[in-house]
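agent: user wants the full assembly modeled, not chains individually. Plan: 1) parse entity lines 2) check alphabet per entity 3) run joint structure prediction 4) return tokens. Steps 1-2 passed, two entities, 287 residues total. Proceeding.
--- entities ---
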Amino acid sequence: MENLNWLFYAYGIGIGLLFVYIFQVSRREQVLRRRISGLQAIVEEHWKK
Amino acid sequence: MSTQSATESPAVPLWLGGTAALAMIVHLYLVFMWVSTESTMGIIQRIFYFHVPAAMTAFVACFVGGVASILYLATRNHKWDDLSVAANETVVVFEAINIAMGSIWGRRVWGIWWTWDAKLTSAFLLFFLYVAYLLVRRATPVEARATVCAVICILGMLDVPLIYMSNRIFRTQHPSPVIGGGKGSGLAPDMLFTLMFGMCAMLLVWGCVVRLRRRVAQLERAADDLVRRTNEMVDQGI
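--- prediction returned ---
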């Protein structure tokens, strides 16, 4: 029974690490998309002037 | 704005993401419900079905990242640099999974979390090489970055065969190889199937992660480009 707990810990850590990484990369993508649209707005505004 | 149009489609197609998720669920079912329990170690041996695929995926990522780095040096085409950083970052993630799970297994079976034997040390070295890669990549100016990173990747690629062969060449505390390990080695058919299925599932997940990370690399480049253009406009007083 104790070994089963350790097995769950191990898989929890393995799958958890994978999910944390995927979540972090997805968040970085969203942040970059927002940053790019902000920068594009600045460039377009400058050109309109 | 070719980068922008290239980044508008989804980074991971639905069919690929769906297949990877399904494969991972089936793999977990095989590990926890289907495969037979190993007679000596008992249920804790089932760590093996995630630990080994994670290591194999890290090795594949090393080679993909290394070849992409070399291709970038040869062609200076940014698509190779994007692939290189994506693959090399995943080496750190999958090596971390491999080391963490191996360490838990070691605690239960050996009674220790870690030992500096050839297999574990060379795997630890690989992990730190790629952590160094990520740090160097951030700290080095763009012009020198590709060369420095390619050197680290080549060292990483050289470490992979060493890790793979270490428990064949040296006497290690790490268990002897179960596949291609000579007389007395081998796995029961259901165990071998679960392992192979796990490797395919992990590679599918890796494919999705690399595509996602490559998209982020493209966006980072597009953002840097826009910042440079904005600064130029400000300098020119436009």
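agent: reporting back. Chain A is about 95% helix and 0% strand. The two ends of chain A are 72 Å apart (CA to CA).
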